[in-house]
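FAQ: What does the model actually see?

It sees only this:
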Amino acid sequence: MSPRSDPEFFDAMFRADPDPWRFDTAWYEIRKRTLLTAMLPAPRYHHALEPGCANGHLTQALAQRCDRVTATDIAPHALELARARCRDLPHVTQHRWAFGAPWQWTDPFDLVVLSEVAYYQPAPALTTTITDMRTHLDPGTTVLAAHWRHTEPDHHLDGDRAHHIIRTTLPHHHVAHYRDDDVVIDVLTTR
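And it is asked to produce this:
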């Protein structure tokens, strides 16, 4: 299979299985969410952006630490699932938007979470996306990136390569780094 980034592919995946990556039960996913929230350097954030929210598991966790969360995905059915999961969280909104599409946000974010989304773009496109993103972020914005480190047929890049592009393209101060056999996590603040 070739690398994928088309909405129809992901929408079909979520229609066939509302939890295709086993966010509820896979130790990798449960552990990663715990690590991500533990590595956030501030106790509270005003407004977070979460591209590729899938069915809203991480969105729900971020909502406990943020005054507002804007969660996005390219798959309409994933967004329906995320809305249902976060229905009791009025400070969470979901939007159909693809990471890499033109920036459409006017409100500032002080947290951007790139979890398992960057490697769906080829290296030149990811460089362009991060270059565009940096022009819209205020200095001091926390950017948290977390990605699976293994090669997957649906990914253009592995997690290590995606993080290299993020770190070299986004002017930042490196706050924290974690890597094991499966996941790489970087916490950066923009300059």
